[in-house]
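Exercise 7b. Backbone tokens:
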């Protein structure tokens, strides 16, 4: 698979790779892996939040505002 990059993207990637003592390919693999891991983590968090909503486990805007006010008054 090939991913076309703009000249600016390639230049920036090369600078970061050089600063880290890595090859451009190694850094690109790391970046892609981190993105995929973060995307999966986000999807799990959304699913957890949706399940909590379905169970009625949430705070209203007013409840959150009240808790924040209490934190600042302490």
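Sequence design result:
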């Amino acid at each position: 698979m090939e991913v076309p990059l703009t000249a600016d993207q390639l230049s920036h990637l090369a600078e970061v790779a050089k600063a880290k003592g890595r090859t451009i390919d190694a850094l690109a693999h790391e970046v892609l892996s981190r993105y995929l891991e973060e995307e999966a983590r986000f999807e799990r968090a959304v699913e957890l939040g949706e399940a909590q909503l379905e169970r009625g486990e949430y705070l209203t805007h007013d409840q959150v505002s009240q808790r924040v006010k209490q934190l600042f008054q302490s």
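Instructor comment: Residues 24-54 form the longest helix (31 residues). The helical segments are 7-20, 24-54, 61-73.
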